[in-house]
Amino acid sequence: MYSRRSRFLTIMLILGLAFFYIPMIMVVIYSFNDSKLVPVWGGWSVRWYQVLFESEEVWSAVALSLKIAFINATCATILGTMAGLAMVRFGRFKGRTLFGGMLVAPLVMPEVITGLSLLVMFIALNQLFGWPGERGFTTITIAHITFSLAYVAVTIQARLTGMGETLEEAAADLGAKPFKVLTAITLPRLTPALVSGWLLAFTLSLDDLVIASFVTGPGANTLPILIFSRIRTGLRPDINALATIIILAVAICISIAAILMFRQQRADMLDQQMAAREDT
């Protein structure tokens, strides 16, 4: 009975992974299609990568998306780390429950609602203060930081909860000031979570379409908006090439984050083993 159940779960897992990854594999394969028609195979070729690299419109969108993603990831990591520290290390304070609820709200809020509310806010600010003068780079960056910091905060919270406060309390007992404890012990131990949170925020920014479409303006097309606009007019083979490059970039980022997390977990296990041996 147990073997049948295990076999069934294995088959379902394989089917689920195949359903998710086979379309991506097909996109990668058809990015090397020589034919101008996406569904028709015309032999192996890299011509569409050449067309892609010669497109100024695509590179402009890539540059804008990367710039927004970098600023968003950096600001979201700083703010998310501060929020995570407040939730885990500051104990219970007045308004903690409300603060925690507002912090995780972007995780469950539909993107359409988030984008619409940000659009209304920017319009109101423009009418009251004359800022922002136009929607584009600044408004998209602020919008991305708004929802990205929630993901970073959750990542930092999980890491802080798991690593405990023993070393921090020991440093405080030895006379270290709170800022010294933060910079010399807490933040270095949070490095894998900080890197993971930064990469996650960076990827979320590159991937966002719905919120960016609400808060952008004429002439400020991010990469997802450009891809969506081209798909609406019909599939083009160079889109497959662009999607392949994005898949490769995301896979590299995820691999880096996974390696860093694995190394940190292994180091923590070794520290715990050493501490157990010293106690015995």
Summarize the structure.
The protein has 280 residues and is mainly alpha-helical. It is built from twelve helices and no strands.
How do the helices and strands line up, and which of them pair or pack?
Elements: H1 2-30, H2 47-53, H3 56-89, H4 96-108, H5 111-129, H6 137-163, H7 166-173, H8 178-189, H9 191-207, H10 210-215, H11 223-232, H12 237-279
Helix pairs in contact: 1-12, 2-12, 3-6, 3-9, 4-6, 6-9, 7-8, 9-12
Give a structural overview.
The chain has 280 residues and is mainly α. It has a single domain, classed as MetI-like fold (Orthogonal Bundle). Helix content is 80%, strand content 0%. It contains 12 helices and no strands. Helix 2 packs across helix 12 (237-279) and helix 3 (56-89) packs across helix 9 (191-207). The longest helix has 43 residues, at 237-279. The radius of gyration is 23 Å and the shape is globular.
The overall average pLDDT, rounded, is 84
CATH fold topology? MetI-like fold
Low-confidence stretches at least 5 residues in length (pLDDT < 50)? none
Number of domains: 1
Number of helices: 12
Measure the end-to-end span: 43 Å
CATH superfamily: MetI-like
Secondary-structure element pattern, one letter each: HHHHHHHHHHHH
Shape designation: globular
Helix/strand class: mainly alpha
The main β sheet shows up as: none
Computed Rg:
23 Å
What percent of residues adopt helix (DSSP H or I)?
over 70%
CATH classification, class level:
Mainly Alpha
CATH architecture label name: Orthogonal Bundle
Q: Report the portion of residues in β strands.
A: under 5%
Number of strands: 0
Keywords: Cell membrane, Membrane, Transmembrane, Transmembrane helix, Transport
InterPro entries: Bact_Polyamine_Transport, MetI-like, MetI-like_sf
Protein name: Spermidine/putrescine ABC transporter permease protein
Subcellular location: Cell membrane
